């Protein structure tokens, strides 16, 4: 599959993206939960549009990041964010 084809698929699946300094991209989509929380699904790719990292960020109803779940390249399970 060509890089252009992968890029189009990623742009279609993820509603937001930003260019990374290394020439890759960070794609993301935000999902709002019923109780005010938000999940942000993030996919990072290299210049060939190959996935280098995939994770989910969970935010509370005040917009504070409370948890990260890294899925790729290694499933690191849920990691709670310590409050300051």
> Helix tally?
1
| Secondary-structure element pattern, one letter each | HEEEEEE
Radius of gyration: 14 Å
Class of secondary structure makeup: mainly beta
For the sheet with most strands, the description reads: 6 strands, antiparallel
Major sheet strand order:
1-2-3-4-5-6
State the share of residues found in helices, binned by percent.
10-25%
The total number of structural domains is 1
Content of β-strand: over 45%
Mean of all residue-level pLDDT scores: 90
Which residues sit in consecutive blocks of at least 5 with pLDDT less than 50? none
- Total beta strands: 6
Gap between N and C termini: 45 Å
Label the overall shape. Answer: globular
What distinguishing features does this structure have?
single chain, 84 residues, mainly beta, six-stranded antiparallel sheet, 13% helix
Description:
With 84 residues, this protein is mostly beta strands. The protein has one domain. The protein is 13% helix and 49% strand. The chain has a 6-stranded antiparallel beta sheet with strand order 1-2-3-4-5-6, covered by helices on one side. The longest helix is centred in the N-terminal third of the chain and has 11 residues, at 3-13. The termini are far apart.
Summarize the structure.
With 84 residues, this protein is mainly β.
List the helices and strands and how they pair.
Layout (H helix, E strand, L loop, with lengths): L2 H11 L2 E4 L5 E8 L5 E8 L5 E9 L5 E8 L4 E4 L4
Antiparallel strand pairs: 1-2, 2-3, 3-4, 4-5, 5-6
């Amino acid at each position: 599959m060509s890089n252009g084809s992968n890029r189009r698929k990623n742009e279609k699946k993820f509603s937001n993206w930003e260019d990374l300094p290394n020439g890759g991209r960070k794609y993301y989509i935000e999902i709002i939960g019923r109780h005010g929380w938000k999940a942000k699904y993030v996919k990072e790719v290299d210049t060939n549009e190959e996935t280098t990292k995939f994770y989910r960020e969970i935010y509370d109803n005040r917009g504070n990041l409370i948890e990260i779940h890294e899925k790729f390249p290694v499933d690191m399970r849920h990691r709670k964010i310590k409050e300051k």
